[in-house]
Amino acid sequence: MSDGNGYLNSSFICLAKLENKVGGDSATRVSTRIRELETFVFSQPMEAARPSFKGYAPVVEDAGRATLDPSYGKDHLFGRVWVRPVLIEVGFITEELVYEIKIWNAWLSRSIDFTNVSVIAQDGTSLDYPALPYTMPQSGSLVLDLTVEKDGPTSQSTLYGLTLDGDVYNVQITGLRVIALEPDIEWDKSPKIDYAFQTVMFQDPARYQEQRRPLIEYPDRKQSVSYLLLDNTAHRIFNMFSYGHDKVFGVPIYNEKMVPSDITAGLDIIQLVTSTDYMYNLKNNCQFIIIVDHDNNQAEIKEIKSISANEIEVETVVAETFNLQTTFVYPALLSLIQASRFAEETDNIQIVTVDFKEFVA
């Protein structure tokens, strides 16, 4: 129930609660009093609520209605320069990505000058901007294309400084690059994937009861694989693992190998011969797939948008051209190297065994 000032009538609430608790003549008297209050409250004109503290928009009364002052917000919206976004969190960098940085001159009375661009740790990114100095008219806007490249430092942490109207506006870019692993494995030694479920147990000895609940939504995964590599490839992989001992790898989950029927550069649909119905990791705990041409040492990691029985839709189009006869599609396990072992089979052949542990951000 509201009072004449638009606030809830506490007396009405108290009396209503009392009515539920008393009986007989007392209940009749309470009900009569509530009806009297209703008659009094609703016979009064309802006015706009008056805020008792600062921070509200100004209220203007118009024919009994409360409306916002149309001038509200001018001091906050105009008379300044807007740059958005100021933080770009890319996440996992698996391909070239392009973002827009939007600049708006919100001064209604004058132009501003865009005079300088400074950058810290630019490697792996590029910013497209006009020749400087550049004059932005009143209420004018400008869009800059920021490219985050597929190749670059493993950990991307870049800061651009845009000098506008004499002030510096910072735009930060962060992300983590993923190294795609493309060699095929030694199938005589089957790949092994382990699932670790982190749980905690509650016990009630008096009732002989116990209950276990998970601490994480999905199990931690570890994958052990062996590669049979020729001498030159073994050296390349050895150097890759040495460089990437603390880096994130996109490792195929080899047990869920899928044969594609169509992978076309420029399209975001991957058609499959293999059904996805029985792919546990792909259907339950997978953000990325990896497209691998083992014969040509070619790989591309794509983020999954949707999955159907014989089709995977990815967030961005396939960039590279793959040979369909030697290409396969796998769920990607983003992993760190836990251990690696190199053993020579012959003078030109090595077996490399690697234990990968899932990377959890």
Descriptive account of the structure:
This protein has 361 residues and is mostly beta strands. The protein has three domains: 10-72, no CATH class; 76-177, Immunoglobulins (Immunoglobulin-like, Sandwich), CATH 2.60.40; 192-358, no CATH class. The protein is built from five helices and 23 strands. It has helices spanning 10-21, 24-42, 74-77, 231-243, 280-284, and strands spanning 59-62, 65-68, 81-84, 87-93, 97-105, 112-120, 125-128, 134-136, 141-148, 155-164, 167-180, 192-196, 199-204, 209-214, 220-230, 248-252, 260-263, 269-272, 288-293, 298-308, 311-314, 327-344, 349-358. It has a 15-stranded mixed sheet that branches. The protein has a four-stranded antiparallel sheet with strand order 3-5-9-7, with no helix packed on it. It has a two-stranded antiparallel ribbon with strand order 1-2. Strand 1 (59-62) and strand 2 (65-68) form a beta hairpin. Helix 1 (10-21) packs antiparallel against helix 2. It is globular and about 75 Å long.
Describe the structure concisely:
This protein has 361 residues and is mainly beta. The protein contains five helices and 23 strands.
Counted by DSSP, the helix tally is: 5
Rounded Rg? 32 Å
Structural class by secondary-structure content = mainly beta
Mean pLDDT reading: 83
The number of domains is 3
Largest beta sheet, briefly? Answer: 15 strands, mixed
Shape: globular
Give me the count of strands.
Answer: 23
What percent of the residues sit in helical stretches (DSSP H or I)?
10-25%
DSSP strand content: over 45%
Give the terminus-to-terminus CA distance: 51 Å
Order of helices and strands: HHEEHEEEEEEEEEEEEEHEEEHEEEEE
